[in-house]
């Protein structure tokens, strides 16, 4: 199965979200991943790569109208983009959506202040693994930032979640190779890179293939649990690279 088919199937099977749910979720989520929010709020021209239904962009536009963000979402899945168009219309926000390949984006060099992605860069291997980051750097303005959330290679929670999903044949993300700090530093030895780790216990429950109504309750509970000593082993690693 090629990767585009994987994502068309993934988004076709996904529950529809409503705007209220999206706002509430990201309000809680961003209390944890304040790094991303911090960078996005400093920018004006933003690009979300591999946006799917673009929940994050819609949240930003809805929550901070005074920022007058100019946000573009790019994805190659028509099904994901269709959900984004629908949600943006309900939320009454102006989100530009582009259907294209993130390895060769139809934007001029130096177009954006921040290029952000969630769960995208880990879906590439071989030459494409660096190409996706290079392409994001290309479209950034000078001194702009990439902010990427990727799974952390040494997180036991991530390993367990992936293992369980694969075991019960509920792994729907296709090829996924988690990152270490070392791998990213070696790709860009001359760049200023910041890594940020946080536990995200709720992501663990996302990984465990429970029926949706149970997983939703558990995730909501888990978001309230803070165990700072475990942050280093969190599922998600935020990577910030300055151009
Ligand atoms: C795990 S999903 C993440 C979606 C969204 N960022 C989120 O967190 O809900 C990965 C997304 O990347 C998109 N994607 C994968 N490879 C791509 C490519 N080569 N070009 C553009 N989009 C791609 C998929 O269609 C999918 O929507």
Explained architecture:
The chain has one domain (3-242): Rossmann fold (3-Layer(aba) Sandwich), CATH 3.40.50.150. It starts with a helix and ends with a strand. It contains 10 helices and 7 strands. With 243 residues, it is α/β, with parallel strands linked by helices. Helix 5 (78-91) links the parallel strand 2 (70-75) and strand 3 (96-99). The structure holds S-adenosylmethionine (SAM). The site of S-adenosylmethionine (SAM) has 18 residues, from helix 1.
- Second rung of CATH, namely the architecture: 3-Layer(aba) Sandwich
* Average pLDDT metric: 87
State the domain count.
Answer: 1
Distance between the first and last residues' Cα: 35 Å
The gyration radius over C-alpha positions equals 17 Å
Q: How is this structure best summarized?
A:
The chain is α/β, with parallel strands linked by helices.
């Amino acid at each position: 199965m090629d990767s585009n088919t994987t994502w068309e199937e993934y988004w076709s099977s996904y529950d529809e979200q409503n705007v209220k749910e999206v706002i509430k979720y990201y309000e809680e989520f961003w209390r944890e991943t304040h790094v991303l929010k911090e960078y996005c709020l400093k920018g004006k021209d933003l690009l979300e790569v591999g946006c799917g239904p673009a929940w994050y962009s819609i949240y930003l536009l809805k929550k901070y109208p005074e920022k007058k963000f100019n946000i573009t979402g790019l994805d190659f899945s028509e099904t994901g983009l269709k959900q984004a168009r629908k949600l943006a219309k309900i939320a009454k926000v102006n989100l530009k959506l582009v259907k294209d390949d993130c390895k060769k984006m139809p934007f001029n060099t130096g177009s954006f202040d921040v290029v952000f992605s969630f769960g995208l860069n880990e879906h590439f291997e071989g030459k494409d693994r660096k190409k996706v980051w290079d392409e994001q750097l290309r479209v950034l303005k000078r001194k702009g930032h990439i902010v990427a959330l990727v799974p952390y290679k040494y997180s036991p929670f991530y390993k367990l979640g992936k293992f369980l999903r694969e075991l019960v044949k509920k792994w729907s993300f296709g090829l996924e190779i988690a990152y270490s700090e070392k791998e990213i530093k070696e790709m860009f030895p001359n760049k200023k890179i910041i890594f940020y780790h946080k536990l995200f216990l709720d992501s663990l429950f996302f990984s465990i293939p429970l029926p949706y109504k149970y997983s939703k309750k558990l995730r909501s509970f888990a978001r309230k649990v803070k165990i700072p000593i475990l942050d280093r082993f969190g599922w998600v690693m935020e990577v910030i690279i300055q151009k």
